[in-house]
Write a structure and sequence with these properties.
Number of strands: 5
CATH topology of the largest domain: Arc Repressor Mutant, subunit A
Strand order of the largest sheet: 3-5-4
CATH class of the largest domain: Mainly Alpha
Number of helices: 5
Strand content: 5-15%
Distance between the termini: 57 Å
Length: about 120
């Protein structure tokens, strides 16, 4: 890497680093940077939230019927809007007993794995 590129990379790290540190700490000022289902759940019951929920539910059903399991990243691909609301829609499907999560609580949002709940 040339000296000019190294200098640019250094300054880019200096500009981005405070944002990464803030996101990693869970907050930046008064803004909470962590997903919390209890906070996001009410958004599902708005008109936009219901539309998003139905899109995600239909996508889940399609992927599970084809593959038997699906990662949240694949489920949410192409769905527009707030990512935390999307995760809340998946958690609501779990809450309703329509799907079951195979991953533990430490999985990143896009890496969560779901299967149909066959109870």
């Amino acid at each position: 890497m040339g000296e000019d590129m190294e200098r640019r990379a250094y300054w880019l790290r200096q500009e981005i680093n405070p944002w990464i540190l803030a996101a990693g700490s869970g907050c930046y000022g008064d803004v909470n940077m962590s997903y919390d289902y209890r906070i996001e759940r009410p958004k599902i019951f708005t008109e936009d939230g219901q539309e998003t929920f139905l899109k995600i539910r239909d996508r889940v059903k399609s992927l599970l019927s084809n593959a038997g399991a699906a990662m949240s990243g694949a489920i949410l691909r192409g769905v527009t809007g707030d990512g935390w609301t999307h995760l809340a829609c998946l958690d609501r499907l779990v809450e309703l007993g329509e799907i079951r999560e195979l991953t533990d609580n430490n999985a990143r949002g896009q890496d969560r794995v779901f299967i149909a709940n066959r109870e």
